[in-house]
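Sequence only, no structure available. Ideas?
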Amino acid sequence: MNLRNVIAIGAVGLAALTSVQAQLSTLKTSDQAPDKAALIPVINNWRVAEKLPHNLTLLSLQGLANREGPQIYLKYPEDWQWEIAGPLIDFLADRHEIDWQHYEMGDLDSVLRDFGSAAKGAVVWDKDVRTSIIVGFTISGIEDLLLINEDQIDIAAKHGLEVKVDLRGQFTGQPDHVIYQWAYDEYFHRANRELYVVLGGEWGAVMKPGVADFGVQQRAWMADLSANPADPEELALLNRVLGEQEEASLVMGWHSYKKDTEGQHTTLTGNYGLKMEGLHNLPNVSFTSQIPWTSDFKFTNNHTVEPDEVVVPEKKVYIAALATDSMGIGAWTKQGRGRIPYGWQVLMNWSWLNPPALQYYMETKTPNDYFVAGLSGPGYMYPKSIPAEKFPPLMADARELMKNLDLRIMEIMDYSEGNRHIGNTDLTKEVVDLYYQEFPDVIGFINGYGTARTFDLRDGIPMISYDYYLGVHRPTEEAAADLEELIRLNTDRPYFLLIHVRERTTIEQVANILDNLNDDVEVVAVDKFMKLAAAAKTYITRYQQPEDPIDLNP
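Reply:
I predicted one. Tokens follow.
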């Protein structure tokens, strides 16, 4: 065996999988990357009536073929939201020595020639019923069938794939709750109860179901059921689906932008103690989940202070900036990284869903890049929505992941009772108590997404909420003026100003904003920021109050 890509015994990769594999028992991992794999480009046209059918078939085939090992990696366009899908191609070639076998865009014939045997036949979706695509993906995974439409029947037959299930006319005129009830009755009892895949996001004429390959590979039941009380039939079925999943299992994908809100959907998954992960367009997970870290790699953070170190602040303004929404849809590849100390929220489940991506981040980091854990636990969840009895086991998973990934700060976000526009994103004292109880070894907690007002300091561990939200389109001069006003309003020194940087805002822009500040300001790493805040409590302890506004449709 070639040991260049074997996970080292006792290394972080194996440890990170320990608790997760028990929850996703169908996950297949390889002890090394393949010598070669297919690199197949998708067509950058996601309209249902145009080129989407071709991409759907590729996703279905990718999920089926990758059950036998990491064989197919789809090449997405440069403007795909998860932008690291492109850089990972070169990284996998350089660090894992994968020899890419290139296919021409649109050449389904050659792809089916080489990989069509992974399917046992075909399932045909109805061109007039968009929801039949999602039902078709479920059938693809459970019945081992290639997802096609009527225009692809001949090319499928050419490669020995006869139509086994035909959805044409099956759902004409039916609402989604009726369609999904049929799919539930027919297939849910055979689906993987450790994974529910939400193929939401764009709606209508466009669909970008990048995560469908993983759903097919894992034989997951897939839907875009609404968590909105305005859709009672869909909500009732969704409650049933979530309630029948395995304990603390994974909900992967994203809610429908048409039907409900992020807050509604993530709150509901939290009610069942389930872990939300990724977006609907997260690509190639059926491939990357099987690629281990190289044997010479260990995930290490850029700590600037020791856990027991005391750092005494001066009477000045300390600023720390943190980019959330992970690095994959953020500014990691954009200009300016390394210019200033900068924090990055890590999706900790990528240690088993996407190990090469985490290795890519770690090996391309600058000394000024610092990683924190998020979001709220072992996945994206709202702590106020999690039943108290489910909280400790979930956070035990989070502690294990943090240890394996060398993370010392936990970031918390809660949109169950509001967002950055309405309601509130503060934490109750009871929730804060739980975090201090479950994470005694962290050096600090961060709360919010937009600004929030939850602050605390216990045993040298601060909880600091964001004081500023930097949106993607906020002009440099206006953002600098906002920060200057915050500095004037908060007169006690030291003042600890924590900034949340949204997604694609570049570090170059953030650095330019901070350069425009006139006061005595120091930009520091997030871990040093926490130690400074622990040494001088100029903030007021506060939790969510009974009179605080609540909005359950954030």
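Residues 3-288 form one domain.
Hope that gets you unstuck.
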